[in-house]
Design brief:
Strand content: 25-35%
Shape: globular
Radius of gyration: 27 Å
Largest sheet: 8 strands, parallel
Number of helices: 12
Distance between the termini: 74 Å
Helix content: 10-25%
Strand order of the largest sheet: 7-6-5-4-3-2-1-8
Amino acid sequence: MRNPLTRTAIIGALAAALLTGGSLNALAATPPAAEPQPTPLLDDGLALTPPMGFNNWNSTHCRAEFNEAMVKGVADIFVDKGLKAAGYEYVNLDDCWALPQRDADGKLVPDPVRFPNGIKAVADYVHSKGLKFGIYTSAGTKTCNSAGFPGGLGHEFSDARQFADWGVDYLKYDNCNNQGVDAQLRYRTMRDALRATGRPIVYSICEWGQNRPWEWASDVGHLWRTTGDISDNWSSMLSLFKRNAPLAQYAGPGHWNDPDMLEVGNGGMTDTEYRSHFSLWSVMAAPLLIGSDLRKATPATFDILGNREVIAVDQDPLGKQATVLSSQGGRWVLGKPMADGSAVVALFNETSSAQTISTSAGALGLPAADAYALRDLWQHKDYNTAGSVSASVPAHGTVLFRVSVQDKWALFPPAAELGADTAPYLEPGTSAEFTTTFRDLGRTSALMASVDVRGAQGWTAEPLTATSAAAVPTGQTLTTRWRLTAPPGTAPGSYPLTVSARYSSPTGQQVALDVAATAFVVVGPPSGDSYVSDLTWVSATNGWGPVEKDTSNGERPAGDGHPLTVNGQVWTKGLGVHAPSEIVYFTGSRCARFTAWVGVDDEEGADGSVSFEVWADDHKVADSGVLTNAMPATQLTADVSSATLVRLITTDGGDDVNSDHADWSDAKLLTCT
C-alpha cells in the first residue's frame, strides 16, 4: 500500500508537533513518501572544488571569545596574510551564535552580546572583503551545545529564509537532538528549503557518517561528514583519516567526503604531524576549513596553511580523491590523478620511527617513459627519477610528490632516497649500531656523494664503513654502518638524529638532503614480572586525554579517571586509554610473555566498543576481537620473547570512537631477564 503521508504533510506535521509540544516518535517511525529518483548530483555549480575557509569551533568552542570581533578579525587576516589569495573563501560561524529561544514569530535571534550588530552586519563585513559567509544549525530540535540553542527541525523553510536574507553562503547542518527522525528526510527537507530561497548556499551535511551519507547524499548536499568530530591530537586525526580514506569513489566536484575541520595550529600536534594532517586532507580532496584562531597563529602555521602547491592538490579541478595504493606496517602510499595528467603521491608514515616508503610512476598510473619529473611539494624542489618514487619519511610525517612526464627532466638533478635502516634503541652510556643508505633514484648518476650523521649534544656517531663515493649510478647505493653512543646519564626519551647527504648532478647542480631520524634512550624492564603501569614507555598516543596509569581514561585532563572497572570487576593496576591508542614498551627481547585483562570501562555506561591488539615489533601476536561494554573482561596473553618493542594497540571496533574507554587491567610483562 502506498504511504499517504506526502513530503508536505510530513514537514507540516513536524512543525505542528514542535510548536504544540507534541511527540515526534510517531513520525520517527514513518518512512518518507515515495519520490521520483533524484538526479545523481546537485546541478547548481557550487563547490566544484572542496570548500576552503575557516570555522571557529575547534579553537573557541562556545567560549566568550567567539564573537563579532573574532569573526571580523579572521576575515581581515584572510586578506592581510594572503590566505584569500591562496584560495580560502568562507568565514563560518559554528554553534552558540544565537539565543536559546526564538522570538514570538519563531525566528532565530542572534546573541546580542556576541553579535551586537546582528548576523547580517557580520556577513556584510565578510562580503566587503571579497569573502563568503557561513553559519551553523542542527537538524534537530536543539543544536549540540548543552545550552540548548534552537535547531532547525520543523523550522527549515523559515530558518533558510533568514539565512538567505542575512547573506549566508554556506550552511553546516549538524545532527544533534534529531528525535530519531529519518536522516534522509531531515537533510532533504533543509536542501529543499535552501533551494526555495533562490540564494546559492553551499550545504554541508554534518551527520557524522552514521547513516553512510556518501551513498545517498550526492543530490542532497555538497559535502557530508564521514566521521565523528576531530580533536587536536595525533590519534584522533589518524583515526579520521583511516575512516575517510576508503571512500574515494564517492567524492567529486560538487559532492565531497568531509573528515572534519583542520586542527593545524591549535597546539596539540607537532608541525610534522600538522603537515601530515594538511597533506592527507589535501590528497583526499577534503574541505580545508581552518580551525585555529588565526589571530594567534605562528609563522609555521601560516606556512602550512598557505602552501599553495599542496592547496593546488586539494583544489585540482579533476576532483579525484586519492586512493590507497598500499598500507603495510603503518607505511601508507596514496595516489591522486591530476587534471594535467600528472599524479600526486603521499608517502605517509603513521609509525613512531622513520620509515622508507616507496612506490613507482607506473603504480601511480603514469605512462611508461625514460624518466619523470619529481616535484617535492613541501621542499619546493625538482628532481628526475627513472621511475622509483621513494623517501625516508620521519615519524608521523608525510612526503608529498607530484610526478609527471616531461621532456625537460634532464634539467633536474637525480632524486635520491636517504635514510636509516632502523631507529636505534640504547640504554644510557651504551652504543648501538645502525646503517644509513643513500640510493640514486634518478636516470642520471649522483656524483661526489657523501653522507654524515649528527646527534644531540654529547652524542657520537662513528662511521664503521665508507661515507663517500665518486659516483652512485642509477639504482645503486652508498651504504654506511655507524656506531651511535649516548652519553652516560642520558634520560630516557627520544633524541633527534640528522642524516645528511651531499652530491652533484652531471650538470653541476649541488644537492643537499637532510633527513630527520630518531634514537631512543630506553630503560629495560627489571628482572622477573612487572606491571607495565610501573614502567616507562617509549611512546604513548591516545584518542582523548592522556593514557592513565592505574585509573581509567576519564577523557580530558590527566588524573581525571576512576578505578579500572570492566563489567563491575575492579582492578588496582593497569592502563586506561581511549581508542585509538598505542603504547610502546622497550623489552629488548628479554621478556617471555605479556598478559592483561582487557575490556570497555564502565565509566561510559552502555556505550563503547573496542578491540585490543598486542604487537611484537611489527608482528601482531594477540587480538581480543571486538569487545563491548556489555561483555566481561577478556584475558589476553602473548608471546613477546623475540620483541625489541611491545606495542599495545586499541582500535575503535569499526564503529567510530564514541565512548571507547578501554582498560588494560592487570597488564604485566612476565619472566623478564
